[in-house]
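Reminder to self: tokens first, then the designed residues, so the page reads top to bottom the way the pipeline ran.
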């Protein structure tokens, strides 16, 4: 089992989310909003700690990288927040989760592990 270095994990999440959402010169996409909309809830850290994480030396993170599935979930979450109001993000994620569970149920409890492509196809063919 791989031991996660939680401090580095939080730093990497904060910096990755900031890189996805922050836009220089856009007041609605500033560091304060990155913290209040995402990092505060995801990492449970205050704004001053978040600022320190943004200045954290990149070479100290050189041996640590977020797992791909975490990066993909964060990318989806931040992208949705850039496109939709928060209430609609919650609604969309609820519907997506419901369809994913339904697709997994269709595979059956004793079925071999369904391929990602198969589940994805089910979302678009039977996902109503």
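Designed residues (128 positions):
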């Amino acid at each position: 089992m791989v031991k996660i270095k939680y401090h580095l994990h939080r730093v990497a999440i904060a910096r990755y989310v900031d890189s996805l959402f922050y836009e220089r010169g856009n007041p609605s996409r500033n560091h304060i909003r990155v913290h209040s909309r995402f990092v505060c809830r995801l990492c449970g850290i205050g704004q001053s700690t978040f600022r320190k994480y943004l200045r954290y030396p990149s070479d100290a993170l050189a041996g640590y990288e977020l797992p791909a599935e975490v990066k993909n979930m964060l990318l989806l979450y931040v992208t949705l927040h850039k496109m939709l109001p928060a209430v609609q993000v919650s609604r969309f994620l609820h519907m997506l989760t419901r369809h994913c569970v339904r697709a997994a149920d269709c595979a059956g409890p004793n079925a071999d592990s369904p391929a990602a492509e198969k589940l994805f196809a089910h979302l678009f063919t039977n996902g109503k």
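The CA atoms of residues 87 and 112 lie 36 Å apart.
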